[in-house]
Design goal:
Blueprint lengths: L3 E3 L22 E3 L42 E6 L2 E7 L9 H14 L4 E5 L3 H13 L2 E7 L4 H9 L3 E5 L3 H12 L4 E2 L8 H16 L5 E5 L4 H15 L8 E7 L4 H8 L25 H10 L3 E5 L4 H10 L6 H13 L7 E5 L11
Parallel strand pairs: 4-12, 5-6, 5-8, 6-7, 9-10, 9-12, 10-11
Antiparallel strand pairs: 1-2, 3-4
């Protein structure tokens, strides 16, 4: 098991204590040692991402709560003369990459005999949480902003989870769920709970398997930045194991209407609090104050990567261009297209783009 500690006071987090924040100082918990990857410990008899369960740092007697997440295709095309691999993480059980982290987290909740839990989400994390809690037999409620797209709300309810709609921006749903969590309900947050990160790291392991060589650049949409941070930890584990020669250049993509990490990179601002939260069609990355923003920014900088912010009027055209390649994604994933074209000259080969959410989750306004 890995050492997990509060980022502020170094309080240890036990797997028996599912705190969403440090009970001593209110800080959040981080992994304070690298993930361990052993190629000969991969177990192909395990479902989905659980082939890599030795990297999760969990007790051996945990029974996976799995729907077969992971093992998504890497499909190649030529974009403006450059070969680009599209990692289709929208082809997961609930239609988003969130399933990688949710499977690990909910497995730990079930092992701890948790009977009910809550989550907040703009949609994808909530749908994933609802599906995996249903699979685990755990009662659940999901707090969503009232602006969350209809298909995502229907999906959450279809799994049997209770939907709690919160008026206003995404941040209001986060505040509402914290009030409930303060009453003692288990807050199985895909943001606060660190256990999702080893699940996200499996995308890095799969990319290496599918490429057969060290990726040069990896691009992904960034809201909270959990996927990019998890992959950074995964590539670090592969580097430590001697399986890659260098960490790939990580590129995080945000909507210009809510781009705190891009703004800090561009302006040098030391804090994220002053970033605006204007409405954007890329609802899944409308995050004004990413909890692990410092860690995400440091990982990107360490990799030699950068952040890109795309204009709102480029998102739907980007979705359409991806669809013409056969990739049907939601607007949150579609931000990647404009960013790819804009930064192509600065990217190292091989280039991998992670497509994170299914287009079936988005219902156009007209």
């Amino acid at each position: 098991m890995y050492l997990i500690q509060c980022i502020q006071c170094n309080q240890d987090l036990s797997i028996y204590d599912l705190y969403d924040r440090c009970p001593n100082c209110g800080g959040y918990f981080v992994y304070n040692e690298p993930f361990n990857f052993e190629p000969y410990s991969i177990d192909d008899d395990q479902p989905g991402i659980w082939r890599f369960r030795h990297t999760f740092g969990l007790p051996e007697d945990i029974v996976p709560v799995s729907l077969g997440e992971g093992n998504t295709p890497l499909v190649w095309d030529v974009i403006n003369g450059r070969s680009v691999g599209f990692k289709l993480d929208y082809l997961t059980p609930t239609g988003s990459y969130k399933d990688r982290g949710t499977s690990v987290l909910i497995s730990l909740l079930k092992w701890n005999k948790v009977g009910s839990a809550i989550e907040d989400s703009s949609g994808n994390a909530g749908a994933s949480f609802a599906a995996y809690t249903a699979r685990a037999g755990i009662m659940s409620r999901v707090f969503v902003p009232s602006s969350a797209s209809g298909p995502k709300r229907y999906q959450i309810q279809a799994y049997g989870s209770k939907l709690v709609e919160v008026p206003g921006p995404r941040s209001n749903a986060a505040e509402a769920v914290k009030i409930e969590a303060n009453q003692g309900t288990i807050y199985a947050s895909h943001v606060h709970q660190p256990y999702v990160l080893p699940g996200y790291a499996t995308a890095a392991y799969e990319i290496l398997e599918q490429l057969g060589e060290t990726p040069g650049s990896v691009l992904a949409p960034v809201g909270q930045g959990g996927l990019l941070l998890g992959m950074a930890r995964g590539f670090e584990a592969l580097l430590n194991a001697g399986l890659i020669s260098d960490q790939p250049q990580l590129v995080g993509v945000q909507s210009r209407r809510c781009a705190p990490l891009w703004e800090r990179q561009t302006t040098g601002a030391p804090v994220l609090d002053e970033t605006g939260e204007t409405e954007t069609i890329a609802e899944g990355i409308r995050i004004r104050q990413p909890l692990r923003g410092d860690q995400v920014a440091q990982s990107v900088q360490k990799s030699g990567g950068f952040f890109v912010a795309v204009e709102e009027d480029s998102i739907i055209p980007g979705r359409n261009e991806l669809a013409r390649l056969g990739f049907y994604v939601e607007p949150t994933s579609a931000v990647i297209w404009s960013a790819l074209l804009e930064s192509l000259a600065d990217l190292k080969n091989p280039i991998v783009v992670v497509l994170t959410g299914s287009g079936l989750k988005y219902l156009p306004a007209n």
